[in-house]
Specification:
The complex is a heterodimer of chains A (176) and B (137).
Chain A lengths: L1 H24 L20 E2 L1 E2 L5 E2 H4 L5 E6 L4 H15 L4 E7 L3 H11 L5 E5 L3 H5 L7 E5 L5 E6 L4 H14 L1
Parallel strand pairs in A: 4-5, 5-6
Antiparallel strand pairs in A: 1-3, 2-6, 4-7, 7-8
Chain B lengths: L1 H19 L14 H12 L17 H15 L4 H12 L14 H28 L1
Helix pairs in contact in B: 2-3
Classes of the chains: A alpha/beta (176), B mainly alpha (137).
């Protein structure tokens, strides 16, 4: 009886150890956190727009079709890296893309878009980062997929890579 | 005497460190005029995780997002939000992860209770083991 009980701590220890080992082995990025806004309505906001004289009113922009929302800035290097994929969404997939220009200098942004191309149908200015907080953003670039009902279906933190591009395309097919 | 002196120096130093903790991250322009409201904002900030640094509170962190969140908390307090409403506002957007102390929920039950379970199991095992070995001798 005593011997049997003595085994129990070892079994528990091995069990805990295997959990830790499993967590080490599986591919996961601790910096990527789940969005609390998934499957919820988009946060509504009004702000200035870039390149257009009329203000940016979110309720006029969402709700008819699938929209990709991309938080970006010219000072953010990964934003430049992912720009090619944002353009592909616009050119090849004909997806409406709304850019939210985060804490940036408008002149620099206009130059940046002239150089790299402008895939955005409209650009909202988030000068003090308040819109980003409304969206639960904690580090740009971040990209959201919003379905035609104005509900957030996907969120990606970090630059869009080829892998993420394909993943989002699969999701777009599903939503359609 | 020498040891006592060293001890006193170390004690003074650590006390200084202890009380001066985190008084530099908050910038003067952030502080509210009303001390009561400022104290509430400070207390909330201490429980809010800096999502960029992840193991610091926004009260300790000098990350730009931490500053934005500190300002936001003060705005909300000035708008008349109570503490609970401020926390709800933040968790609605960033999830429970933004709270440094996990909330007491069904999904976090194991987190809260497992330490006690392990403790009691330990006591039980030690007690049981002692009883058995006493009998032997």
């Amino acid at each position: 009886m005593k011997k049997k009980i003595a085994i129990v701590p070892s079994i528990i220890f091995l069990f805990v150890l295997s959990i830790f080992f499993y967590l080490l082995l599986i591919e996961r990025d601790r910096s990527k956190l789940p969005s609390n806004l998934l499957n919820k309505n988009i946060p509504q906001f009004e702000t200035e727009s870039l390149l257009k004289s009329e203000p940016f009113i979110s309720s006029n922009e969402f709700g008819d079709e699938i929209v990709l929302v991309n938080f970006f800035a010219t000072w953010c290097k990964p934003c430049r890296d992912e720009h090619i994929y944002i353009k592909r969404f616009s050119n090849e997939k004909k997806i409406k893309i709304i850019g939210i220009n985060y804490k940036d200098d408008s002149k620099k942004t206009i130059n940046w878009l002239n150089n790299l191309g402008n895939p955005y149908s409209s650009i909202a200015l988030d000068r003090n980062g308040k819109i980003a907080i409304e969206w639960g953003v904690y580090g740009i670039p971040e990209t959201f997929v919003v379905n035609p009902d104005g509900i957030i279906k996907y969120r990606h933190v970090g630059p869009i890579t080829n892998k993420v591009y394909n993943k989002i395309n699969l999701l777009l097919e599903e939503i359609k | 005497m020498n040891i006592k002196k060293t001890f006193l120096v170390l004690l003074t130093f650590s006390l200084f460190q202890f009380f001066s903790h985190s008084s530099f991250t908050i910038e003067p322009d952030e502080i509210l005029k009303d001390q009561k409201l400022e104290l509430r904002a400070r207390n909330i900030s201490k429980n809010i995780r800096c999502m960029v640094c992840q193991n610091q509170s926004i009260d300790d962190s000098s990350a730009p997002l931490a500053k934005d969140l500190r300002l936001l908390i003060r705005d909300k307090i000035l708008d008349g939000y109570n503490d609970k409403e401020v926390y709800t506002y933040l968790t609605d957007r960033y999830g429970d992860f933004i709270l440094l102390k996990p909330p007491f929920k069904l999904s976090t039950l194991a987190l809260w209770f497992l330490p006690f379970v392990f403790f009691l199991t330990g006591i039980f095992l030690v007690f049981f083991h002692n009883k058995k070995s006493k009998k032997k001798y």
